[in-house]
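chain below, 182 aa
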Amino acid sequence: MKNNNAEKINEAILLINNSSFSKAVKLLEEIIIKDNSDFRLLYLLGTAYLKLGKLDLAELNLTNCLKFNENLTSALHNLGITLSLKKNFSEAKKKFLKVLELEPKNLDTMIELARNYELSKNLNEAKKHYEEILKIDAKNKTVNNLLGRMLINMGFHKLGLNYLRKSIGLIRFKEQNFEIIK
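prediction:
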């Protein structure tokens, strides 16, 4: 039975990696009915539900996964994303900070924490966190893009465009707007 589960878990991982989230959910639910004691199943199911946008089910499964292993950083990270999408920013922040306590240089989580601050309208804190990431990886296109767009929305157009330039290339200014040169 356990060997068969291992094969099915590997199949579910392949389905998730190939963006076949609904098929992965169906397969994982079949396995969990027979064996609900494997935290990996709960993690994978929660992740698949997150990818499907079924946030309540994602939260439930990721929370249950963490009952088995409270320091599983990938589950904490995905639960943070889930909570942020549900606009539960304070709880999301706690999950992201827990990941960073365990893995201080986890760039993906650092980005999600900064985005969480931005989404919760704590723009100064978001800016501070984006800048911290850029101290580690100055050429990070995702962060340069996010920070640039946020600064433009805050009214800091030149500074924002400077960050956007780092993420997308040259910017040619015209009378009323700008164009991106690739």
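The chain has ten helices and two strands. Residues 84 and 92 are 5 Å apart (CA to CA).
thats it, cya
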